User: What shape does this take?
Amino acid sequence: QVQPVESGGGLVQAGGSLRISCAASGGSFSTYAMAWFRQAPGKERELVAVVSRTDGITYYGDSVKGRFPISRDNTKNTVYLQMNSLKAEDTAVYYCAAASTRLPMAIPRKGESYAYWGQGTQVTVSS
Assistant: This one.
């Protein structure tokens, strides 16, 4: 089983950029779809972005579409989230999650589909 570990969170000004990473150990990384979720205080967990196992198929939540490209490097067992044009409402704890998928192009969108989660990394955007 894979264990995701996030890194790269921090404090950034509105309009700025930040890249967070998720290194996954202990499993066959290329057999997992990888996703970023986020949760702000008092709000429900929200899907940010998903990337398929190997075909590079992606899906984005409406609030980040066009701003937060997701990518993965299967040679490094790492998934990235490049966050651009950050807004105060992007402030949240960002979680990396892994879902074992049978089809290479699958991009699960529900949190329940993800069996493995990281501990989260805080991203704070100051306005």
User: Anything to note?
Assistant: The CA atoms of residues 5 and 44 lie 22 Å apart.
